[in-house]
Amino acid sequence: MRALIYAGKGRIELVDIEEPVLRASNDVKVRIAMTGICGTDHKILAGKLAVAEKGTVLGHEGVGTVVEVGDSVTHLKVGDRVIINPTQSCGTCRNCRLGAYCYCFNFDDHQVGFTLAGTFAEYFVGKAQYLYPIPDGMSWQVASLIEPLGCSLNSVLKSNLQPHESVLVIGSGAIGLLCQSITRRLSRLTVATEPNAFRREFAAGVADYALHPDELTPETVADLTGGKKFDVVIDAVGDQLTTALGTVAKGGRVVPMGYDDTYRAEVEPTTLIDNGLSIIAAVSLHDAIGPATDFAADLPELAKLVTIDVDMADFRDAFEQTMGVDLVTGQRIDVKAVKAVIRS
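The structure assignment produced for this chain is given below.
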């Protein structure tokens, strides 16, 4: 079968590999319809996130149709459309037995598209408990956004955002836009930043205001927030903690969401204490799929987020347009998309 594998920094290759088979009674085989390209996939290729080994099938935002089930599987049947939850765990360590699955002691060994074979492939085999039925009437494109929507929803909820508060979302890629969609409904003010003109224009239709990062001056922040800065700041990029701490109000909360292993920031504990600031990094939720599936019905703009939909053979174009990097030369190019999905 066809699959996209990680071939080293800056390299992803389309190869033929052996089709997976059921190995346990609770296994389910899925014919993958499509998989969304995540910012995490970008960071892996850019060498900013060391979670995948060479030869690993990438992709973790997969959806598809059940084609075979193990003998003990009862909640799914052949023909069901499903969303795959990529965030898995060993289930037996102390943290798993306490229900803290996202802090599994063996967490890194159980992540689809990182250490387990991912969904940029024609077929996927996984455990039944990690597969969720897709509601009738939900498109494949929207279904492929449920996993990142769940991550975004949980991050916003962990911030304890209140209806009278203001929010700054740094970055308007897919995760940033999902956060903006959520906070626009839960807060009095949502402001987005984004350096790319295409994505900034898209964010202008989601957030209350969409600014270039250079426009985020102290004067502008004061004007937008009535002089108090932002109550909640979400870093959806992964290297903006310093900016976030400089724009959050006293008593406010900063939520780091983006991943970048290469980024470092200095934090002054006395400033955190004196200003009553909280950095909320405990935003993981093992079961993000269920809540996000229910919430998606209130987000009609989800259908517009997928701006590229290509066959696996055209993966390079999808990655380049969402990363802003030519995968052959490594040169920067204009970002021309919000979210891309690759059909299997």
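Interim note for the steering committee: The CA atoms of residues 87 and 102 lie 7 Å apart. DSSP finds twelve helices and 15 strands in the chain.
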